[in-house]
Design brief:
alpha+beta; globular; 3 helices; about 180 residues; Lipocalin
């Protein structure tokens, strides 16, 4: 179990890390609109840009749900090192910061630190999504299922590249099969 001080130091480092990445001249656009009710639920992490907080984490997924106060539950569940290891969950909160599109949020796992969460690509049927930090320096390809067909994954990368989002650092996250 992580001690709160350890999590706080890690999140401060993450904020500094994402703040120090080189920013493109123009930030990648988000999707035009997100229907939050359709977006809520479980999203499996298909691939991501690896960074220290997710090192060794496999079989990971995010769960989003509405809270009574209007904010969103944002839980990150994972297994450490093996898809058969016990599940662990980090409990977070999110809130929409662009209510016109619902595609830009703030996410917080440790108060008072929060990071920008943007939805850069979204399947019309809400079967997959690509989210990331404000400058797309960190990215996650998410899906409702534990895997995506290779042709669909390639099409997603093509869509991201057309938006000038760099995808060459994405790495697959092992998920259980069956």
């Amino acid at each position: 179990m992580l001690r709160p001080a350890t999590v706080l130091v890690a999140l401060i480092a993450l904020c500094l890390f994402t703040g120090c990445t080189s920013m493109p001249k123009t930030l990648p656009p988000t999707v035009a609109h997100v229907d939050l009710d359709r977006y809520l639920g479980r999203w499996y992490v298909i691939s991501h840009v690896p960074y220290f907080l997710e090192k060794g984490k496999v079989a990971s997924y995010d769960t989003y749900a509405r809270r009574p106060d209007g904010k969103l539950v944002n839980n990150f569940t994972f297994r450490k090192g093996s898809v058969t290891a016990p599940e662990k969950t980090w409990h977070g909160v999110a809130w929409v910061t662009n209510t016109t599109t619902n595609a830009t949020w703030k996410v917080q796992f440790v108060w008072p630190l929060s990071v920008t969460y943007k939805i850069f690509a979204l399947d019309p049927d809400y079967r997959w999504a690509v989210v990331g930090t404000g400058d797309a320096g960190l990215l996650w390809v998410l899906a409702r299922d534990r895997s995506l067909p290779s042709d669909k994954y390639s099409a997603i990368l093509t869509e991201l590249n057309a938006k000038s989002i760099v995808t060459d650092k994405l790495a697959f996250v092992p998920q259980p099969t069956g």
